[in-house]
Structures are given as C-alpha cells and as structure tokens.
Design brief:
Helices cover about 45% and strands about 25% of the residues. The protein has helices at about 1-20, 105-115, 145-180, 185-190, 195-210, 215-235, and strands at about 25-35, 45-50, 65, 70-80, 80-90, 95-105, 125-135. β3 and β4 (about 70-80) form a beta hairpin. InterPro entries: TRAP-delta.
C-alpha cells in the first residue's frame, strides 16, 4: 500500500513538471545596447522577449538565462514577457553577436548538476536569443588637445624651414655677389652706407631664429635707409 502511494505521488510530480514545461516554444525578442561609451561607465545589454507555448503556463513560470558562461535571471515584466539584462565595462565590451540561452527550472537544475562535475558543461536550452551589439563609440581617435599640439608643432616647423630657406637663398646671393655678380640692391646699400647694417640684421636673425628679437638692428637699418632717401630727395 505504501509502495502504491509513493508511485502515485511520483507520477503526479512528473506529470506536473511536464505540464509546466513550455511545449513548442516560440519567441519574439527586441534588444538594446549602449552605443556611446563617452557618457556612460558601463555598457548595458537588454533584451525583452515574449514567450509563446502551445500549452498554458502558470503565472509564476520562472526562466533563467546564461550568456557566455554568465548566469542571469530572466525578470518577468508582463504576461509571458521577460527581460534579461547585464552590464560590462567599455574596455571589455565586444561588438558582434551575444547568444542568450534561456532555460526553464528543469533545464537550469540540469545545468547546475552538470557544472558540478564539469564547469564547461552545457545543456540544451529551452530557446536561444541572439543580441547584436554593433560596438560603442569611445570618442575621437585623437583628442583636441593633442591635435592642437601637433598642429602647432607642424606650423612652427614649417615656419622655421621657410626661414632657413630664405636665409640660404640670401647666403647664396651674397656669395654670388662676392664672386663678382652685380646686385643693384647691394650697390644701393653700399652707396647709402647701410650695407653693414643690413648684414648685421641678417646675422641677428640667423642666430636668434626670431626677427622680433632683432628689433633694434632692424630699426637702425630702417633709419639709415630713410636718411638716405631724404638725402636723395633734397638733392633732386
């Protein structure tokens, strides 16, 4: 009599468990992920799905989720509607497809038993949902401060290079004049007595690499040229 009673209880338990399992599961899912990593400290992954079964399910029908070895719970948010969510640091968040395995209580218990002996063990899920993460924007590849610094370096290098080229051209002209070439500008400066001041200005610019530091020499040269012009005007 006791044996029959135990068999009856066991049969009822198995029948109840089978009745609570979703038969021919179908799912409609929508997913969301954080796309701008410049304004958040964690990347959020959220999927919401509606489960449809051929058999009616109890109101407290529990579901569980597993994503890449991470155990999660599926929160019930409505009639046969569930939500699975988790977060990751932006540096660890990868783009691509994240597969979410959904399990009922029976499948979840089977997975836990299998994991006790083999941490890498898997069981067939009730259903699987694929969440596509296109990747998160982490800001420009180079920030504005670094870009401004690089541009200033390029501008300074270009200016210095151009100044060196100008000085080189003037040096070549001076060498050619020393070889006997006639330069009307040099002749004019010789007649005005300002040639030495001109050389003095060029020597200062060459040594300091900044004409603004040679203002005194430049003013002296300009004064000499102005006096020469005034003298020429009075003679005429």
């Amino acid at each position: 009599m006791v044996t029959k009673y135990l068999l009856t209880v066991l049969a009822l338990a198995v029948g109840t468990s089978f009745a609570q399992s979703c038969q021919n599961p179908q799912v409609e899912a929508a997913s969301f992920t954080s796309l701008d990593a410049t304004v958040v400290t964690q990347i959020a992954y959220i999927t919401e799905f509606t489960l449809k079964c051929d058999n009616p399910l109890p109101e407290n029908y529990a579901l569980y989720a597993e994503v890449e070895g991470k155990s999660l719970s599926a929160a019930r948010v409505g009639d046969n509607k569930y939500q699975v969510s988790w977060t990751e640091e932006p540096s660890k968040a990868r783009s691509g497809v994240h597969e979410i395995h959904i399990l009922d209580e029976e499948g979840w218990a089977s997975l836990r038993r299998a994991r006790r002996s083999d941490p890498a063990a898997t069981v067939a899920p009730l259903l699987a949902i694929q969440l596509q993460h296109p990747g998160s924007y982490s800001g420009p590849w180079i920030n504005s401060e670094v870009l401004a610094t690089l541009l200033s370096i390029v501008i300074a290098y270009t200016a210095l290079k151009n100044k060196s080229m100008i000085f080189l051209e003037m040096t070549i002209k001076q060498r050619d004049r020393a070889d006997g070439d006639d330069d009307p500008v040099e002749s004019m400066l010789k007649k005005s007595g300002c040639l030495e001041l001109h050389y003095k200005v060029m020597e200062c610019i060459n040594s300091t690499k900044d004409w603004r530091k040679c203002q005194e020499e430049v003013n002296e040269f300009r004064s000499c040229v102005s006096k020469h012009k005034e003298s020429q005007t009075r003679r005429q």
